[in-house]
Amino acid sequence: MSGATAESATAEPPIFWLPKKCADMNNGSKGRAKPMRADRMLPLFALSPEPLRKKAVEAWCLWRKRRVSANKTPRALIFFITHRCNLRCSHCFFWREINQGVTELTLDEIRKIARSMRHPLSLSLTGGEPFLRSDIPDILDAFNEGCGMHEAAVATNGVLTERIDQTVSDILKRRYLSSFGVQVSIDGTEATHDAIRQVPGTFQKAMKTIAALAELTKQDSRLSVHAGVAVQKRNLSELEAVVETLLPFRIPIRFNIVRGGSFGVFGLPRSAAVDHDPADHDNTFLTVAEIREAYRRLIRLNDTAPYRFWSERQRRIWELSLAMLESRRPVFPCYASRMESVLYAQGDVAFCELSRSFANIRDFGLDMAALWASDAARTMRPLISKCFCIHGCNLTTGLTFDSKTVESVLLERAQRHLGKQEPDT
């Protein structure tokens, strides 16, 4: 598995949106509004007095919150483009659905779905192993032409090195992309990683993929590559060794707390929940005390490393996750039912990976806007209005409305923009 092992590789939710009249009319996006990356405003933001920065960020976050209810379709889409996988990871929450022979959405169907989107979106491709599909570049084209998507990411187990390298090289020919991220899973030292993935040789293949993609980042700054570590009981003692192994590549590292339907989610009614637990969850899920200690270790490692491999945003996700696990209270509202959606390979749609599917897009003529406004969607939204979880993808969206986090992330980017630290994760 790739994305379903812990977190999907998340395309960063846009912070600033240009009005439609300012959209780039030549990027193949049919004149849809194109997000303006915060980097373009970093010098002015960084030089502003602190009180002015805080007020500006607070006003911006409040304005965005007020616009949430106006969404006609998702602003962030996690798309399981296939349920096929070439591994059988012990911590995979999606193991029951893997390799069950579902009829996957075709490229023509995906094009129709993309055209039904009413807003540009951030697109995260996952699976299964996404690179078992040969049409990833065409899928990206479909969403760019259909709704102006120009930020995307993909999660992979990294086994298919040559195919991944060739596909990403092809993707980077798409000039409409402002950013493309690839997460490669590394879940411990070689022996531990291969034991978790249950196929010998996967560690070496994943490391070869990281090396190949790291070279591509030197040729195209739009490409970001990071390692994704699914933190669990089997590799808890190896965090330092994993960091030491990856530091020579000077790539960001994401440490994802393995969660499931019975761990890390609160207030979700049984009628709305889905059984997404690893098969061997007793030997996978960490205790809160273990997560707290891992957090302290990662802070120390990050502070003493030759570059900051763990970003402020990722650190904040752990901080908030611990707060929820310890207090069993939400840290901020969840925006999943108003901002996000999960599209599975056979067309099933959910608001998040922890809640059940409530409709199939094929039953709505492949029209996401119609599905989004349907009775099924309206029935589901209240059921998940009070739940909260430690899922990094949903927390990432929530953090874009949190003024403290937005300010700190923008200041962190300002330092990077001035050449003071490594790329964000």
Automatic annotation (TrEMBL):
Q: Which residues form the Radical SAM core domain?
A: 71-308
Q: For this protein, what is any one GO molecular function term?
A: catalytic activity
Domain of life per record: Bacteria
- The UniProt record lists the keyword Chaperone: no
Tell me which UniProt keywords the record has, alphabetically: Iron, Iron-sulfur, Metal-binding, S-adenosyl-L-methionine
Q: InterPro entries under this entry?
A: Aldolase_TIM (IPR013785), Radical_SAM_PqqE_MftC-like (IPR050377), rSAM (IPR007197), rSAM_sf (IPR058240)
Instruction: Quote the Pfam families the UniProt record gives.
Output: Radical_SAM
Cofactor or coenzyme needed: [4Fe-4S] cluster
The transmembrane segments are none
Looking up PANTHER family in the UniProt record yields: PQQA PEPTIDE CYCLASE (PTHR11228:SF7), RADICAL SAM DOMAIN PROTEIN (PTHR11228)
This one is known as Radical SAM protein
| Organism, scientific name | Desulfatirhabdium butyrativorans
